[in-house]
Design goal:
- The protein has three domains: 216 residues, FAD/NAD(P)-binding domain, CATH 3.50.50.60; 112 residues, FAD/NAD(P)-binding domain (3-Layer(bba) Sandwich); 105 residues, FAD/NAD-linked reductase, C-terminal dimerisation domain (Enolase-like, domain 1, 2-Layer Sandwich).
- It contains 14 helices and 22 strands.
- The chain has 468 residues and is α/β, with parallel strands linked by helices.
- It is globular and about 65 Å long.
Length: 468
């Protein structure tokens, strides 16, 4: 391995490893420093990928527990093999991380395992878990260190009884009662996994609604759907303390606005109140890198920090804290370094909750449009009226399109339903090209498909939907 590079990337998550590959394609010599033994960062190792593997497996179990009989598929006694389910998840993660290692080798990227510290501009110390630190130099440094779970005062994380998303992915038995602190995407996804496998799930959320930041209509209907699946919600409440014992965890819960506290017992508590940039220990203060009031690294339009030669992307900087946003950041950043152009429109980053039904959103919410004083039109279409949804028995949910009242330009799309995370991408493409609702409405959609609901919602913007 060399000691000097064109680019040193700190962090091998989706932002870091994608940036490394693109930089190598552009002819740069690249080193990628990662403290984990495996590439892929939080997303691949303890986040997006393992959670989706468990979501898939638990959904299959849920279907087999009764829903398959509704379509004429009858099976014998059902048995959960959680150990095997966890092993399958581990295999998925292992194969994908090995895939990234292959891509690094193919693109001649040096993977340095260890903890990185910026000693000076263009100089990084890499300390492996065992052995001496090594100093490497680079013309540029890119920070792609991602984020970590936000702690909650009064709750000590042990990743056994009181867990973050990391521990919730590794449980060896199904909790009788799982309390999820926080009503965001991560908590609801993991709550769905264990609810399908037999847990009673209670969500405690500080705000008066779930999925903060999403469209209000989506949030209300999504909560009703989850309640039908067995979720219990305690909104406008906060957890102020926890006492763990062999018999379980006793939580102290109080109204957010103040009031009499109550106790709640659980086998497992999942703390999922959000994530924060993971930038401690990098030596950024030493070299003068500036942060905003929320702890994110400040960058300019070229992703360069306040220190020339040091760049940052992904969860470490402002914007949606999502793996695909980090990937886009990484590509744009290194293309700019190579003398090209790059830009990421954060208004067009899809947000997806991988429950069943899925929730997928892009662009503006009704609340945001009202706050900005933007006149808009709305088109809604239920999956109950979609022939594909009816034929496969997944009729829960709807498509909602928001369009400018004057120009008809699509401003936001909000979907709850089967495969919403896939369906949303035709809307992302349309919005990237400045499409109107009529453009979508006049586009021929295959029949029968779930995407026909998008076409009908676009027609509904002009009050001319066909099937309702």
């Amino acid at each position: 391995m060399a000691d000097s590079y064109d680019l040193i990337i700190i962090g091998a998550g989706p932002g870091g490893y994608v940036a490394a590959i693109r930089a190598a394609q552009l002819g740069m010599t690249v080193a990628c420093v990662e403290k984990r033994p495996r590439l892929g960062g939080t997303c691949l190792n303890v986040g997006c990928i393992p959670s989706k593997a468990l979501l898939h497996s638990s959904e299959k179990y849920h279907e087999a527990s009764g829903h398959l009989s509704e379509v004429g598929i009858e099976i014998g006694q059902l048995k959960l093999n959680l150990k095997k389910m966890q092993a399958n998840k581990a295999d998925v993660v292992d194969n994908l991380t090995k895939g990234i290692a292959f891509l690094f080798k193919k693109n001649k990227i040096d993977h340095l395992e260890g903890t990185a510290t910026i000693k000076a501009v263009g100089e990084v110390s890499v300390k492996p878990e065992k052995g001496k630190a090594k100093t490497i130099t680079g013309e540029r440094i890119l920070i792609a260190t991602g984020s970590e779970s936000m702690p909650l005062p009064g709750l000590k994380i042990d990743e056994k009884q009181v867990v973050t998303s990391t521990g919730a992915l590794e449980l060896t038995k199904v909790p009788k009662h799982l309390v999820v602190v926080g009503g965001g995407a991560i908590g609801l996804e993991l709550g769905s996994v264990w609810a399908r496998l037999g847990s009673k799930v209670t969500v405690v959320e500080f705000l008066d609604r779930i999925v903060p930041g999403m469209d209000g209509e989506i949030a209300k209907k999504f909560q009703r759907v989850l309640a039908k699946q067995g979720f219990t919600f305690k909104l406008s409440n906060k957890v102020t303390g926890a006492k763990a014992a062999k018999s379980g965890v006793t939580l102290t819960v109080e109204p957010a606005a103040g009031g009499k506290p109550e106790t709640m017992k659980a086998d497992t508590v999942l703390v999922s109140i959000g994530r924060r940039p993971h930038t401690t220990g990098l030596g950024l203060d030493r070299v003068g890198v500036e942060f905003d009031e929320r702890g994110f690294i400040k960058v300019d339009e070229d992703f360069e920090t306040s220190v020339p030669g040091i760049f940052a992307i992904g969860d470490a900087i402002p914007g949606p804290m999502l793996a695909h946003k980090a990937e886009e950041d990484g590509v744009a950043c290194v293309e700019i370094m190579a003398g090209g152009t790059g830009h990421v429109d954060y208004n067009l980053v899809p947000g997806i909750v991988y429950t069943q039904p899925e929730v997928a959103v892009i662009g503006k919410t009704e609340e945001q449009l009202k706050e900005a004083g933007t006149a808009y039109k709305t088109g809604n279409f239920p999956f109950m009226a979609n022939s594909r949804a009816r034929s496969v028995g997944d009729t829960e949910g709807f498509v909602k399109i928001l369009a400018d009242a004057t120009t008809d330009k699509v401003l936001g799309v909000h979907i709850m339903g089967r495969d919403a995370g896939t369906v949303i991408h035709e809307c992302a493409t349309a919005m990237a090209f400045g499409a109107s609702a009529e453009d979508i409405a006049r586009t021929c959609h295959g029949h029968p498909t779930l995407n026909e609901a998008v076409k009908e919602a676009a027609l509904a913007v002009d009050k001319r939907a066909i099937h309702i």
